[in-house]
């Protein structure tokens, strides 16, 4: 079995989307830190997936009314392999550490 990790992330797709879209993005994550409960990374992952898809397909001039192009199909396949939960956990951890300092 081949190891697929990349630069400390679960795979290249996750690393690349984190780097290109979320690294340095000023996300307001205050709402995820409520009453000393563990923040809900599953809810955040859904939001991150939508942000990534919007970023990719907005740049491509995506239009639902026309058939998908080969480039859109490849973009969807790439995005499908992204581990948004891993990115969410990472962002929440970094945000929490920033609150403590």
Would you write up a description of this structure?
This protein has 101 residues and is mainly α. The chain has one domain. It has four helices and no strands. α2 runs antiparallel to α3 and α2 packs across α4. The longest helix has 19 residues. It starts with 11 loop residues before the first helix and ends with a helix. The model has no long low-confidence stretch (mean pLDDT 87).
Q: Please state the CA-atom Rg, rounded to the nearest Å.
A: 15 Å
Question: What would you call the shape?
Answer: globular
Terminal CA distance reads 41 Å
The overall average pLDDT, rounded, is: 87
Estimate nothing, just give the exact number of structural domains. 1
Which class best fits the helix and strand makeup?
Answer: mainly alpha
Count of DSSP strands? 0
Could you describe the largest sheet, including whether it forms a barrel? none
